[in-house]
Structure formats: C-alpha cells, structure tokens
Amino acid sequence: MYQIKEMYYTLQGEGARTGRPSVFCRFTGCNLWSGREKDRSTAVCNFCDTDFVGVDGPGGGKFINALELSDAIESFWPNEESNKYVVFTGGEPGLQLDKNVVDHLHLKNFEVAVETNGTLDLPLNIDWLTVSPKADSTLKIRSGNELKLVYPQENVSPNFFEDLDFEIFYLQPMDNEDKDKNTQRTIQYCLENPRWKLSLQTHKYMGIA
What is the domain count for the chain? Predict the structure, then answer.
C-alpha cells in the first residue's frame, strides 16, 4: 500500500524543469523528520517547510497497489497525451517508491522524476533525479541529474558535493525568517563559484502549489 499526502496538477517551480506542467505526488513520511512540530528541534532536517503527515491533502489517500496509484496519477493529466510528467516528492519518496510504480507509469508514457534527500536507495528506472542533501545526514545517492542544496545550512558547504556525478548544481535560498538575506548570500556564492546556479521557488512567487 502506498500512502500519499497529496496529488495535484501544477507547474514545476524549481530547478531545471521550472515551468513544466507536472503531476506532483507527495508521499507521506520522511526519515529525517517526523513532520511534527514538537520534533523539529531535534530533527536531522529542521527547516522543512512541507506538510507530509497523513493522507488528508487534496488527492491524497491510500493506494492498494502500483496500478491503482498510477491510474490516480494519470487522472490528473489533461486530455493532451504528450509530454506526460510526474514528480514524486515528500516527505521522502525513497521510503515508498518502487520499480513497479515507475514501470506502470512508463506504460502510461509518463516521464518520472523524483526529488529526494539522497539517503535511501531508489529504483534505477527513474528518468530525472534531483537530490537535495541535508546537513548531518549520510548521502547514499551520489549521482543524478540535479543536485539542489538549500543554502545556507550549518555544518555543510557546497564544496562538499562538487566531486559528485551530477549534471547541474543548484543552490536554493533557505526559506525562513532570513529569506532575503539568504537569497543575497546565495546569489553572491553563485557569482563567486560559477559551477553553481541559482534555483528559486518560483511557485511561491507566483502563488501556485
């Protein structure tokens, strides 16, 4: 059974696929934080801004098998049959996503993307992989399409990751009470270290999910 917090059709807001129509499928659960505010201060990732607890979000629920989940994802796609794209996120997709789900979506002509913290194994048949490392965690996935580091984080520096096998390296300003200062720091780091590109959460600026 797959437990989904929410599922919806939108535009990708971050990284290299920004602006692309996508079905977002958010898994419940994460291995770096319980999702409960009372546990935030002791979590490995204590800056997460996403609700991934329960299955009560729009389109959320429990899906008994891969076919049922893939059918639900397909139901969000408009009638146009081309360029079908789904993004699995969380929480942490590595806790639930398996090869069977990806295979069913490939049969429906979806391109499958995953956004992960990189600490757990994932199916090898994913089409687009974005890894977002978190300080004080052990990175297991060390290659992919995008590495997207939320910046700044204590105890971690962008140069820790520059020898990894990723096509694109992104820095994304941490969205907290210091967001404006974090954005300026991120811009400056990218200017001084041009291997890194700036990633902005454009969906927040546009007011979409």
Answer: 1
